[in-house]
Design brief:
two-stranded antiparallel ribbon, disordered C terminus, mainly alpha, 8 helices
Length: 192
């Protein structure tokens, strides 16, 4: 589901599925009192909420330009691009909305599995990056890891990354095809 989309005319994130405001965590961000600021004393423009929505989209959504970036890089880029401050990131209502969005996204089992595979792949990369052939030895001084085995693991990572990218693209394509269908129709051969 495309909850947020980029609006070319306003050059900011907009809400595509207003039903998201039925969810308590997002309704809390939309609150007029919470959105009052110097630039919008009435809170009606909901400037803070839109900045928070932009962060959530940029940081968590698989359609974000930062989707494939490392976790810390995504966080920093989303923070800068959304215009939020570190202090605003620590707001409890905002953190609850971030958690809820993550749960909504991860409720799709296939997407959740793809994300788990990416996280595992990243952890493996970090592990391999921290191997020290000279110091990682057993009790008798024999190396625990050999360069040949590490190279095999690296080759496996490259293969797995390609397979995950194909799986992710197929998944995204199927979602796009399904979102174009109306009612209970199944996509046909010409809908793919």
């Amino acid at each position: 589901m495309d909850i947020f989309i980029f609006d070319n005319q306003s050059n900011r994130i907009s809400i595509n599925e207003y039903t998201i405001l039925l969810v308590k965590e997002f309704r809390d961000l939309w609150d007029i009192e919470r959105n009052k600021c110097k630039e919008d004393p009435t809170g009606l423009l909901r400037l803070r909420a839109y900045k928070e929505f932009a962060y959530i989209y940029l940081y968590l959504d698989w359609k974000s330009v930062y989707h494939k970036s490392l976790e810390q890089e995504k966080r920093e880029a989303a923070l800068i691009d959304s215009g939020l401050t570190e202090e605003e990131l620590q707001d409890e209502l905002f953190k609850a909305a971030v958690d809820k969005y993550r749960k909504i996204q991860d409720s799709d089992r296939i997407l959740s599995l793809i994300k788990t595979a990416y996280r595992t792949l990243y952890k493996t990369e970090v592990f391999l990056d921290n191997i020290d052939f000279n110091n990682d030895v057993d009790e008798i001084g024999k190396p625990i890891f050999t360069p040949a085995n590490v190279m095999k693991d690296i080759a496996g990572i490259a293969k797995m990354r390609k397979e995950l990218q194909v799986l992710e693209e197929e998944y995204k394509s199927s979602l796009k095809a399904q979102s174009k269908m109306r009612g209970d129709q199944e996509p046909g051969i010409f809908d793919m």
